Amino acid sequence: MSATQQKRVSIKSVVLAYVEQRKPAVIDGQELAALRLGVANSVGEGRRISQQYLLDVLAQTGVPIARSLGGLPADLRGRVHFRDPQAAASSLSDLQREFEEARRRGDRQRAEDCRSAVRQAKDRLRLVLRRSDLSPEKKEVKQELLRWFLVWLETPELFSQWLELRRSAMTER
After folding, report:
1. pLDDT at position 7, please?
2. Cα–Cα separations (whole angstroms), residue 62 to 20, 27, 74, 76
3. Is-above-0.70 flag for pTM?
């Protein structure tokens, strides 16, 4: 079988095997560098290895990622949803309450973690919007949800009121 006929090794499979074999307690800069080297050696030269993709796959494994690399506390991972408007509204409102409570208590780290959770979901949503197989209807919905995420990040304390007005305006059309 020629090299072009051989199945390409996926980056994701290499990351999952790395985590299974090494069982890192936390992914910090040093661990990420070792993983990146292992992935490069396994998938071959010339393949682009995005650090963000590596971190996204690692986040799916549940291994803690250092905050310096954008890691979130376990209870905030996967809390922001965008599968549909109801899930997005619910998760953003939930995080808004948590954000406001953290600010009220003076817990800057927790408030920033809430913002990071929304920022990461926004980035994942942007990746979804780049897919060519997204139907025009789904793309329109996802673009609307992206607007919601951006408003939340700009003014989380006003998000609920803004969303209520936005939904009213959209139903009037």
Report:
1. 65
2. 12, 11, 8, 12
3. yes
